[in-house]
Amino acid sequence: MSDQVEAPTTDNASSKINPVLKSSDMPEEMQTKVYELAQSALDSSKKAVDIAASMKKEMDKTYGPTWHAIVGKSFGSFVSHESGNFHLFLCGQLGISSFQNSLIFYWIGYVVILFVCLLVFFLISLHSISSGGSV
Question: Any stretches that span the bilayer, and where are they (predicted)?
């Protein structure tokens, strides 16, 4: 299977893409930026992975981490994302999805793990002290 994608539909006046919105909770100005990034990525490469990588990198730069981009002719997705940061559109037969996951979810996980480790250490220390042993 080739990772090359067909050129998306363009309008006759220029080589700009004609995006067809499928689903989005992004503000309009952010949607416009996504279309501009898609246009730039499609102008640079016809490989789906390169288009996705370019869009992800630019979204991270513009709006902060952590963005994800999915590009292809056929894909399904069910994602968790930050409110106001999901966009799915078509360019001809090419689907392009971008969404942001916040790093806060990762940090919360690390804090919980650290808390549990400290609690276990404290309980072991407390048990050891009460039984006259050392840690």
Answer: 104-126
Q: Across-strand partners of 83? A: none
- Order the strands of the 67-72 sheet from edge to edge: 20-24, 86-91, 94-100, 67-72
Beta-carbon count within 10 A of 34 CB: 23
Q: CATH code at 32?
A: 3.30.740.10
**Tens place of pLDDT for every residue, the chain, 135 residues?**
456 665 554 454 456 889 999 999 999 999 999 999 999 999 999 999 999 999 999 999 999 888 999 999 988 877 777 788 999 999 988 999 999 987 665 666 677 788 888 888 888 888 888 777 655
- Domain membership of residue 70 (yes or no) is yes
